[in-house]
Amino acid sequence: MADRSSEQVVFSKPKVELHVHLDGAIRVQTIMDVAKMRGKTLPVNTVEEMKKRIIVEKPGTLTSFLEKFNEYMHVIAGDREAIKRIAREFVEDKAKEGVIYVEVRYSPHLLANSGVKEIPWNQEEGDLSPDEVVRLVNEGLSEGEREFKIKARSILCCMRHMPSWSKDVVELCKKYKDEGVVAIDLAGDESLNCEANPEHMEAYEEAVRCGIHRTVHAGEVGPASVVKEAVEVLKAERVGHGYRTLEDDDLYKKLLAQNMHFESSRVGSSPCNRKVAGSSLGLDSLGRCVLGQDTSPCAPGWLWLQCSLPSPVCECVCEWVDDWICKALWGP
Ligand SMILES: [Zn+2]
């Protein structure tokens, strides 16, 4: 018990969170409420049953992890009130966790039902565009910021399997640059590289040209070559996860020398049972890591668990005032 309380003390310090997905951090109660209001069908009828369905308890594949989104995204997507509500509630939840600065990411297309090639989640076509989704999320985050006195910035995600969306994403980053959108991200199936999907590359070139910050999910499941592409081709300034960088010694040394920031989620990544080369923990080998919950409702208590990591890692989270982590933040 002594250990637990000392961890609690450390973890009560102010925190910065740089890698968390909005659509993976929705309150289960909100999903149930919105489903009822909109007359949307869910596979179960109570919060407890829904938690059992969408919370990942055991290691599995990344695909099985991502399939959880199919259970509830149709409820939230396409609904203006719900989108603003999840953004505001997200800020409230972060404030309660002691987070004082957060960069939350999401795909505007995955919450829209209009102006999207291939409308997601089997929704019928409506009138909510990705542009309006960004505006609504911005409103919800701003409301939360005012109410809960923390800073919340956002990162817009391109999806690897939908290269046709990427141009829109960078344009939205440009349009809402002064309204809390701080960067572009690329998420999804890492086997889909940018050589085969040049639209992602073009979007990132435009981001570089316009001074939009860049992060890329890479080396979480995919090999070190995906990290190399993220850094060298897409000019990523931070790497989402990046664990498999450790498989390429030259790349690893180069990125260490560059002070590359790895947005790591040691506990958040474990349900996917991925192998972290070089170290049982991985994080201390990766050098400069920032920790994030990634997809929080699917893994209760992860933020808490992260605090049981050895001190050099824990300090990455808790001593946020440390010089390098300040440099990793993209918000004003
Ligand atoms: Zn992520």
Automatic annotation (TrEMBL):
Protein keywords: Hydrolase, Metal-binding, Zinc
NCBIfam families reported for this sequence: aden_deam
Family: Belongs to the metallo-dependent hydrolases superfamily. Adenosine and AMP deaminases family.
Gene Ontology CC annotation, any one: external side of plasma membrane
Molecular function GO labels: adenosine deaminase activity; metal ion binding
Any single Pfam family the record assigns to this protein: A_deaminase
Positions of the Adenosine deaminase domain: 14-264
Name under which the protein is recorded: adenosine deaminase
Keyword Zinc: yes
Necessary cofactors: Zn(2+)
Enzyme class: hydrolase
